[in-house]
Structure formats: structure tokens, C-alpha cells
Amino acid sequence: MSVSRSLLGLLDLAPRHGYDLKRSYDELFGSGRQLAYGQVYSTLSRLLKNGLVSVDGVQAGEGPDRKRYAITDAGVTDLESWLRTPEKPADYLQNTLYTKVVLALMSHRSADQILDAQRREHLVSMRELTRRKESGDLADQIICDHALLHLEADLRWLELTASRLTALADRLPTQGADK
Fold first, then answer.
1. Rounded to an integer, what distance in angstroms lies between the CA atom of residue 69 and that of residue 53?
2. The Transcription regulator PadR N-terminal domain covers which part of the protein (predicted)?
3. 95 — phi, psi (to 5°)?
4. pLDDT attached to residue 73
5. Taking the chain, what is the end-to-end CA distance rounded to the nearest angstrom?
């Protein structure tokens, strides 16, 4: 996710302080992965340097002065361009699980055990997401549906791969073959 574009989008709604941006980001997008204050302020500094936001006011407080940031016209243009640009689907041609399966087969270890353990882990995640979806608001339901559909696709891949392990093993070099 683009933190800088997310902050621009929040600033497009109204000027805000860094603390308010972090709180809004965490509420809307940060489930399980909240922003650190340092990341908010370093991102705002970069956006300011690039002319995408400006300081809209400074408020004196007990601690450091609180700057209120506003999106600039260049920031609006950048945000609109980002919103219109489709995301490139991930092609998943290289992933860690595939690598583990291949290396297990090459070294005469159990790829079935790897796939079974991964299946169990996926099912645990699916149960947690389903509970969250059932108790959540519409935003939670939508994001959980996205994650659940990806996990379902992963489970289909796990089953398909398990059915092809013997054929895959026959095509791979094995431990000791090159020694």
C-alpha cells in the first residue's frame, strides 16, 4: 500500500495534523499494521519537499509546535492520477512456498508435510478472518472478503501442487546428483 498516497487522500478531505493523519490511517487502513509516528512525519516531510502538501498552519502546544498540513494542487493531481491507475496484479511466479516445495523434493524431504502445514496455517487465518468479518462493519467485511478469496486461491494451489508432487520430483535434480 502507498502510505504517501493514502495520506494525500486523507488530506484531500481536509487539512490535518500528523497525529490526526496517523489516527485516521490506522482506523481505515492499519488493521494489524499501524503506522509509526516517525513514518507519518517522514512521509509528510517528503510530500512537503515534493510540493504535494503545504503547511497550512502551526499551533503552539505544550510540546513541539503542531503543523497542520494541506494538500496542494500538485498533490490533488498526483492523487487523482494514482486513483485512476489500475494496480498491476501480482503474478506470483516466485514465492517462498514454491521454493520450499522444490527444495524439499530435491533433498528427499517431505514436500507433503510442508503443504499440509501451510494448509493448516491458511485455515487458521481463514477462521480468524471469518470471525472478524462476522463481527465487523462493512469496511471489515470487504477487506476480509479480499483476504479470504486470496487464501481460497492459495488452498486450491496447495491441493493442485500436492497432486503433482510425484511428477515434479521426477523432473528435478536430487541431492547427490551433481556430486
1. 6
2. 7-80
3. -145, 160
4. 98
5. 45
